[in-house]
Write a structure and sequence with these properties.
By secondary structure, the protein is mainly alpha-helical. It contains 8 helices and 4 strands. It folds into 2 domains: 14-184, no CATH class; 259-355, no CATH class.
């Protein structure tokens, strides 16, 4: 990749690909952010002329503005994370740690290992903040005060920060494993060591655990998965002539739903997923310009739940899937019940204030 040997003659080829990936992420975020900001500027200009629009068009325009604003915020966060990672990765290969009058120099592997450890600490910190936010929401529910929307928004922001950090942490771990695997296989040229080993000397990061040796024989996980995949594909192709285009008749009964209730929930949501812990809904919109949202009942109609906005929430496809078949669906259902009741109450108060 054209990388110069660093730290005692070792030739690290992986950093070039990691840097290139980070630079590409920054460039991609820049381009997407420019497009989103241009779109936001266009929508805000139209909002300045909203007096010429009907009430339905105003609501749609307001929803689009909120969606694009959220998209801009997400892209700014993604760009900042990529820039920070690139800056950290391009930092000089050394840590200001003193041992006598000398300086402990660290290789890029060790810097990357330190980055992984810092990411792990950040994840733990954010998890603690999320736990405190959830506990606060639960306390408000137990007091009968509903879920404060500002706390729900803060919790959603924490979830998004954690998701972004998890992606960076996963990339860091993958790069570190690539280094270790290459070193184990002799792909890295070893040279004379002129610095203390990792974990030696004050201030040095702890030594990384020895990488697990993956079996490469007939019982390796990779081989088992590939074999299983080929077997499944063969069975599919064998049965395909008999099943292609076939239809299985079935009879089902679905509850009657009032479309006005769904419309009310979409308007109430402002085009945003109402799950406080949403990790980020799709930035795209439907062909008609609406947010991609599913309106679902907190308590299913088939189980006796009301077909009424007080029992309904607008969810992005991911949150809808978690609420429907996720392992934490009952916990989420309890949160969404409080969210739906609070959002319905506030929407009713705002409507009453407008009529006054």
């Amino acid at each position: 990749m054209g990388e110069e040997p660093v730290d005692g003659g070792r030739d690290f080829r992986a950093p070039g690909s990691v840097r290139a990936s980070l630079r590409a992420a920054v460039s991609e975020a820049d381009g997407d952010l420019d497009q989103a900001e241009d779109r936001l500027e266009e929508l805000l200009a139209r909002w300045g002329e909203r007096e010429t629009l009907g009430s339905s068009a105003k609501r749609k325009l307001s929803s689009r503005i909120q969606i694009v604003q959220a998209r801009c915020g997400t892209l700014r966060g993604r760009r900042a994370a990529a820039l920070a990672a690139l800056k950290s990765f391009d930092a000089p290969s050394g840590v200001n740690s003193r041992e006598g009058a000398g300086r402990v120099e660290l290789s890029e592997v060790e810097i990357l290992f330190e980055q992984v450890e810092r990411s792990k600490d950040f994840l733990q910190k954010i998890d603690r903040e999320i736990s405190r936010a959830v506990a606060s929401i639960d306390r408000h529910r137990s007091y009968g005060k509903g879920v404060p929307l500002e706390k729900a928004d803060a919790l959603a922001d924490l979830r998004r920060r954690r998701e972004s950090l998890c992606r960076w942490y996963a990339r860091s771990v993958a790069a570190l494993e690539a280094y270790e695997a290459a070193e184990d296989q002799g792909a890295l040229r070893s040279g004379p060591e002129t610095r203390p080993a990792v974990g030696e000397g004050p201030g040095a990061p702890p030594a990384p655990a020895a990488p697990a040796v993956r079996p490469q024989g007939a019982d390796s996980p990779e081989r088992v998965l590939r074999t299983r995949y080929r077997k499944l594909v063969a069975e599919v192709e064998k049965a395909e002539p008999a099943t292609h285009g076939a239809r299985r008749p079935r009879t089902s009964e679905t509850p009657v739903r009032n479309p006005r209730a769904r419309e009310a929930v979409v308007l109430r949501s402002g085009g945003r997923c109402e799950n406080p812990s949403c990790g980020g809904q799709p930035a795209d919109v439907t062909d008609t310009g609406e947010a991609i949202l599913d309106v679902d009942h907190v308590e299913d109609i088939s189980a006796g739940g009301r077909d009424h906005p007080v029992n309904m929430v607008a969810l992005c496809p991911n949150c809808h899937a978690v609420k429907t078949r996720g392992s934490t669906r009952e916990t989420l259902r309890a949160v969404l019940r409080a969210v739906a009741e609070e959002a319905h109450r506030r929407a009713g108060e705002e409507a009453a204030a407008l009529r006054a």
